[in-house]
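Students often ask why we bother predicting the structure of a whole assembly rather than each chain alone. The short answer is interfaces. A chain on its own may look different once its partners are present, and contacts between molecules only exist in the joint model. In this exercise we take two input lines together and write out one structure for the complete complex. Read the inputs first and try to guess which parts will touch.
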Amino acid sequence: DAGVTQSPTHLIKTRGQQVTLRCSPKSGHDTVSWYQQALGQGPQFIFQYYEEEERQRGNFPDRFSGHQFPNYSSELNVNALLLGDSALYLCASRLQGTEAFFGQGTRLTVV
Amino acid sequence: AQTVTQSQPEMSVQEAETVTLSCTYDTSESDYYLFWYKQPPSRQMILVIRQEAYKQQNATENRFSVNFQKAAKSFSLKISDSQLGDAAMYFCAYRSLLTSGTYKYIFGTGTRLKVLA
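Now the answer. The structure tokens for the assembled complex follow.
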């Protein structure tokens, strides 16, 4: 079992650009959540997807959007990138009613 | 809103010794879960231990144990016989039940644990 897989592992973008991060959940998991972890901080909840719908959203602007596909994989999109969007983005997957497994994250640097 | 506070940015422990990491939280809910996660340089969050709020007995996983004080809203992690591989960031987390029936994790700011040989 490959666990939760995120891609890419690192990327660098310029202010104003758009970025897409990808997550493949652990086998058997149907729910995917995204977290933003700024340097020196704990992860903060962005949103959660289940049955291809956004089920809950944290305190993040509309520039942050997502999608879940029929195979349960998910994408996180961020538009109009700001320097403050530089962070580690973590994906967590789980089966309803169980605890989450986290991926190794995507390190996004905005310059 | 729920909050999680870790007041120790960094802790050091001698190999084979015992160390305690502190965590306090605030919530108005009566039913919830608390966790300690370990984040090594590989960046992956690894579940160390879990505590259900309705259980009075403190959780234990091998060398890791917690001191859960519900009334005081305190949840500390004790690591016994510390090993070099225990060096990492440790995050205290609260699992909040969302209105949709799903849930999210609320994390503290973390404690960096250094293990000295």
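Check your guess against this: Chain A touches chain B at residues 31, 33, 35, 40-45, 48, 50, 55-56, 58, 88, 90, 92, 96, 99-100, 102-105, 107 (CB under 8 Å).
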